[in-house]
Predict the 3D structure of the following.
Amino acid sequence: MSTKEEMSHGERVKAAIDLKEPDRVPAFCTLSWAVNLAGNNLNCIGKKEKDVSMPQFLNTPAIQAEAHFKATELFDADFVWCYSSNQPVAVALGCETNQPYWSTTAISRTAIDKVEDWKNLEFPNIEKDPTTSTQLDTIRLVEKGLHEKRGNDTFIDGLTNGPFTIAGLVLGIEKLMFAMVDRPDDTKEFIDFCTDVAIEVAKAQLDAGADQIFCPDPSASGDLIPPDFYKEFALPYAQKYCKAIVGHKDRYSCMYHICGDTADRLEDLASIGVSFLSLDYKVSMKEAKERIGDKVCLCGNVNPAETLFLGTPEKIEEEGRQCIRDAAPGGGYIYWSGCDLPIDCSLKNVKAFMEVPIKYGKYPIN
């Protein structure tokens, strides 16, 4: 490995995951905001009409790949993220979605109506399903392009949701809540099936050239289920998923993000076995660092709405610096927001956000 003063993006990320101090704090990517780098969209920020719509961005690998190449140049990015839907596994299992002109995809119809109907679901053909195959094509293009441009250095992330969240998408989150109480055994079998599908989709993405899988599990949040339900219905399947992904590639290949206030389950989250754990802005990074910072690399957690979207560059800089103060000392920290960046964030705010670890994240942290 290179010395700290000359680390590559990949070396920087791996050092943080290994709970070491890299040359500086690495930063996760802009996620959905990257649509603003497609075509001439940068000149359309704040305008109703766009040069490239969200469906075009999601469904056209060449357009998305070019946007990611721009991100590496504009932000000197440590990561890029390739996706064709926010719910690729659920769509592959039969859910229907709508694709708004300028917003992320949303489930419009679930695949099943009753939890026991999961047995009628067919395991998808990942290479032929339109959503998953488009995602694979995007990953291949990005991997090839970044290899040529940057020596295959930037971390390329794929996407599947966490198993519990997939189950909530396929059945409907309200029905899943009732099923955990009324039919717990069927529910566990169903979530286990979702886990198996997610694992195979993730493996295909890794084989296509992804370095890591971004695994958001928002339905497993403390805002939806209490700690005992998390431990029974979400944790075992997140652990199974992560073990399979890491076993398929390496210990750097599985990122887990969970929304909401999860202070009541931090130790459980640390036990999943992920490469790094991304926390919502509702969680104190200082407390998380004290409780589990010696067990897992932490990521987060600038407020995406109040600060990144509505705030000023000065507010973003101060909140970002505080995240670094709270979680970066000693290493084992990756800078990011508390969730996906709002796609209507101004360019000046996103630039200010991405510059924080470059300006203030050099080790040793004061």
